[in-house]
Amino acid sequence: MKLDRRKFLQGLGATTAFTSLSGLAPGVANAKTRGSHEGLLDKRNGEIKYHTCARNCADRCLLKFRVQDGRMTYVSGAEEQEKTGTSPCVKGHAYVQYTYAADRILHPMKRVGKKGEGKWKRISWDEAYAEISSRLKQVIAEHGPEAVLPYSYSGHEGMIGKYGGPCRFFHKLGSSQLDRLVCVFAAYEGLKSVTGTWRGPDPEDNPLTDCYIAWGQNETATNVHGIKYIHRAMDNGAKLLVVNPIRTPIASQADIWLQPRPSTDTHLAAGIMKYLVEKDLVDHEFIAKNTLGYDELLQRLNDISYDEVEQVTGVPREKMFEFARVYGESPKSVLRLGYGMQRNFNGARMSRAIAMMHAITGNFGEIGNGFVYDNVQADDGMNYAKGTASHLRTNYKTAQHINMTEIAKAIHPTNPTAYGKPSKPIHALINYNGNFVAVAPDSNACREGAMRDDLFLVVHDFIMTDTAELADIIVPAATQFESDDYCPDYNCYYQQICEKVIEPVGESKDNWTFFKELAHHMGYDDPEFQVDHEGILRDFLDTDDYAYKGITYEKIAKEKFVRVNVPKPFFGDGKYFTESGKIELYSDYMKKAGFDPVIDLGLPEEEMIKEERELPFRLLSPAIPQRANSSFYNVKYIRNFPAYFAKISPVDAEKYGIKNNDRIRLNNHRGEAYFVAQVTSQVVPGTIMAPKNNWRRMDPQGLNSCTNNLTTDKLTDMGGCSAYHSTRVGLSKA
């Protein structure tokens, strides 16, 4: 059975003082100059292990760890891989401290008080396995296997850690299937309606473009190593254009930065297209040869006025015209679409409009041209069916699906639902690679569900998260550095090694070891539970996909990173993946979904309940450079980087009497959250920005609040994706 990554994701269904290891985390080693600390410099010596950063970041850095006497001492970038270079980001530099954190969970624990009281009893692994397997068997006997739900996402992005190990267990058990659609999938649908794919050209060719457009992307948070390719393009004379409602560092460097109101991107793209058409800056030859529906597009653009575009977006038309002129006059342009902007109720429709804009300028099919969103060629080419042993699941067609964005609804105490319909109650939940009480939207409702006495909650993690503190059983997880794995790129075109750097610390176990041993306690004796890590990796590589032609387990082990086979230039053959084989400017696919088949101008506020729609501020909750989703809160010095601030425009601050460093309260019908105000022109009036996925238990004001207390769990227009940014809030001083 052919099963690619996208289909697979849709179908998946008391801490101890760490005194013995806390001193191992080194400080910052200075260069070898007079007065440098030789003891710290010695940390840079030792055996080298190659390991890929398995966080959910587009960089996918290949790292080199130094190991002395079995202990990790230092991390640097693998300079032999040009895209990574010599240095990780601020988060990657913290991996030694991350691994040897003083509050790391080192042994299994059982709750002995009420949920959330923080009262735990140390138990053995045998006791933990006996308790977990016994409770799972009881739940299955009383309610059926669909009463068990896995919850996970990107705490570990390795092929085994995220997929191969855990999924074998849940396939065999026959659990409910978790649809891991929280990210990317709205734009997948929008882009599929234009070119048939969300894949694109190699970002390592960006220096060859004449114009680089960052649309809704903040490279400093999730693609910091990609900035060097942008700068090389600029050194070669390329223009930098940025579209973002937040002034990012890249926006500050741009030749032109457009700052539209959140989720008005369809109007903005339509306005730019209208100008390109009127000034004859479109590529007529490309349009005639490669597209369908151009006449329908022209008719639709005639219905859209610049007055409407300016009023909706807040972008002055002259500035939009300047942007369009530079873009249209550039011989070659690369557009990088960010992930955050598609997390809106109109995410697919916005993504479609932006891709159409790039098509009528003819920016496909040449080196230095193209549309970059989610380059999963290295990922999709692997054999997911065999790697995850999907054949073990006998209820693929009948098991219920739970969207992870709607986890609060699925575990609701009295009225569980999924996709707007009643669902079977969940009585056991195993959380790994995730922290849903902090990460999922509507955190208060998530916590309420997790607090149910009839929900058996198991958490496999290495620190006490918001979710772990509500668990019945906590089992200690190894970090990614304590097992072997692979980690495919999803920006460039690489498959990369994750060598085991150190042995598991304390009594921790990696994901495959935990689920394999739990399977044995459940009585599962299938051959798929007898293999080691290498066996699973070989299963993933047992593929006839062209991307992996000539790539073997031995080749990856030897070379540490390999480039998968992707023809260049992307779309160079003029063949697209739509049903027509053309770029579809008129789309029956969109029409069948209930939207305008050319350009749909619907806005999120039209879909909000009146109670929320009338609140004064749109809340944006993007990533910040010092965190990766909810990770790195165990690193002391990273905790010192603020994650509980809210950026407010000077106009709004004056209106509400807010000054820098004032404590403020944001609220809506889902709850409230408390922040420290930062008054800045980084955001437009009517918008507030607060970091995503901060923890309730880390709230510096001690009020158990976080950004996701406020965010919506309503899904996007297409793709079942999260729509965190389609949230409105009120504001007051705290």
Automatic annotation (TrEMBL):
MF annotations from Gene Ontology: iron-sulfur cluster binding; metal ion binding; molybdopterin cofactor binding; oxidoreductase activity
Domain 4Fe-4S Mo/W bis-MGD-type: 47-103
Needed cofactors: Mo-bis(molybdopterin guanine dinucleotide)
Domain of life, source organism: Bacteria
SMART domains found in the cross-reference section: Molybdop_Fe4S4
InterPro entries according to UniProt: Asp_de-COase-like_dom_sf, MoPterin_dinucl-bd_dom, Mopterin_OxRdtase, Mopterin_OxRdtase_4Fe-4S_dom, Mopterin_OxRdtase_prok_CS, Prok_Mopterin_Oxidored, TAT_signal
Keywords: Iron, Iron-sulfur, Metal-binding, Molybdenum, Oxidoreductase, Signal
UniProt keyword annotation of Oxidoreductase present: yes
Family under the similarity heading: Belongs to the prokaryotic molybdopterin-containing oxidoreductase family.
Protein's name in the database: Twin-arginine translocation pathway signal protein
Naturally occurring in which organism (per UniProt): Ferrimonas aestuarii
